[in-house]
Amino acid sequence: MSTSQGFGYWVRWQVPVCALIFIVPAVIALNFIRKGNAEPLKSSVLWKPCWRNLNPLWLLFYRAFACLCLAWTLYSMVSSHGAFVLYYFYTQWTLALVMCYFALGTVISAYGCCGSSSSITNRDKEFKGKSKRLGPLAQKEILAGPWGYLMHAMYQTSGAASILTDIVFWCVLVPLLVNVQFELTLLIGALHSLNALLLIGDTALNGLTFTWVGFAYFVLWSCLYISFQWIIHAFGSSTGWPYPFLELDTPWAPLCYFGLALFHVPCYWIYALIVKGKDSILSRLFPHAFVKV
What we know:
The chain has one domain. 68% of the residues lie in helices and 0% in strands. It contains nine helices and no strands. Helix 1 runs parallel beside helix 9, helix 2 packs antiparallel against helix 4 and helix 5 packs antiparallel against helix 7.
């Protein structure tokens, strides 16, 4: 992968075209988020499993375990290849995001479990009086706060980004570049598998939805990464581009950027299909145990 070549590298015609390809979707996504199109999110959905008789502590323990696994993987990668891998590759960005999701999910699950166990007695004592006075309002659940919406956005972004990184790595980079620019080790293989596997496990337990509103966050996440790469290369980074399809010194650069932008749609759709398939299949197989979202 070639490195940037000073000012002349950034005055070629491919640069403004490629810039528009990722700036325009970022602006549209930001505008979509600012309009507040997110659906109401119940706070209990963040920490309660989608299985009727499953104790929420199991979801808490799973998220804590997943966070520790990803933290160990990231630590091993930094120990082997240096701290630059934390910002250089999209995979490490995604792994860090998934780890942060599980960390925040662990905290919210712990808060939900503690709050539920400590307040259940008071709710039982006050429910009869309040239900008569409030009527249908007593049945409404408390909506999630900013941290809950952040967790939901991280969940949707992490799921789609994990699909993108794993497909690109196993279907594009491994067949073309393995043993040429990198070696496929157990650590690198785990780095490109654990994120999606642990998220799918969390999906099998949680009751979170996967709406198309999250696609805007996914687009912003990828645009943020590309912007970061452009900035460090504009300021003279000598490490080269992390992926060959981000190169700008080829006439095919706009086509690569446009194809990468379009590829976000099926990646998000795949994980949305996983969530939808979970609700559809498990609700039929276990109608009395599974709580459909």
